[in-house]
Each structure stands twice: as structure tokens, then as C-alpha cells.
Structure to design on (131 residues):
């Protein structure tokens, strides 16, 4: 399994994301990087980086961070959009990383068993929720 290293800072490459694919107003429970896969923790309703290290609530992907956020910042999550990401292979399916929180890998992990992104070309990925 190879972890996907972000090339530069991921950014939205979809011109206008559909309104039903954007969730805004939740609060970051930790520092989150642009393009990180994220979930909403039920106990505090805050956004955290998803991880496929275990088959638990943190292995859910509710969306991808639109930009970098500090803990306490309002967060915007998106899905069914394309991100300029870099370091990807066209046509390759990507899963939630089991070792890098918020990251992607080219093989399933213990908790990351669902495809959550696909390489569009060498610099863009199409992202989606895990459910």
C-alpha cells in the first residue's frame, strides 16, 4: 500500500460545487489540512480528520476540507467535487489511509474499505463520501 503525498496545497478545481455537496458551519475539533478527508464526531459535532486505522466512527468520510483550518475555525466540507491534489495516477481508486489521518492510500486499510477518491489525471482527484 502506498500513501498518497499531497503535491502542493490541495484546492478546489470544480468550477461551482453543487449546493447539495457542501456542508458549512461545523467547527474544527483539531487542525485540518486542505484536502483532508474528514468526519463529524457524534459526541461533540465537531470536524476531525478521518483515519482508516480501525473500523470505527473515525473511518467515516463525511467530506473533504475545502481549505486548511485551525481548531475552533468554522469548516466547509465538500464531496462529489474535484480537487487539485497532485501525486495521483489517472484512473486509480483511493481509500482512506490507515496511517496518515485525513490522507489517501492506493489500497484499503482496516477502516478505509470504501473507495473515496479516484484519480482524474496526474494533478486532480474526484472525491466523495464513504457512505
Amino acid at each position: 500500500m502506498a500513501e498518497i503525498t499531497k503535491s502542493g496545497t490541495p484546492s478546489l478545481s470544480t468550477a461551482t460545487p453543487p449546493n447539495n455537496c457542501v456542508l458549512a458551519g461545523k467547527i474544527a475539533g483539531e487542525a485540518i489540512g486542505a484536502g483532508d478527508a474528514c468526519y463529524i464526531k457524534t459526541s461533540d459535532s465537531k470536524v476531525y480528520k478521518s483515519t482508516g486505522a480501525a473500523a470505527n466512527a473515525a473511518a467515516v468520510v463525511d467530506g473533504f476540507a475545502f481549505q486548511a483550518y485551525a481548531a475552533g475555525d468554522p469548516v466547509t466540507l465538500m464531496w462529489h467535487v474535484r480537487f487539485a491534489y497532485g501525486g495521483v495516477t489517472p484512473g486509480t481508486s483511493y481509500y482512506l489511509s490507515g496511517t496518515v489521518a485525513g490522507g489517501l492510500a492506493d489500497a484499503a486499510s482496516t477502516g478505509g474499505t470504501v473507495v473515496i477518491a479516484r484519480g482524474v489525471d496526474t494533478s486532480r482527484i474526484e472525491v466523495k463520501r464513504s457512505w
Observations:
- The chain has one domain: 11-127.
- The radius of gyration is 13 Å.
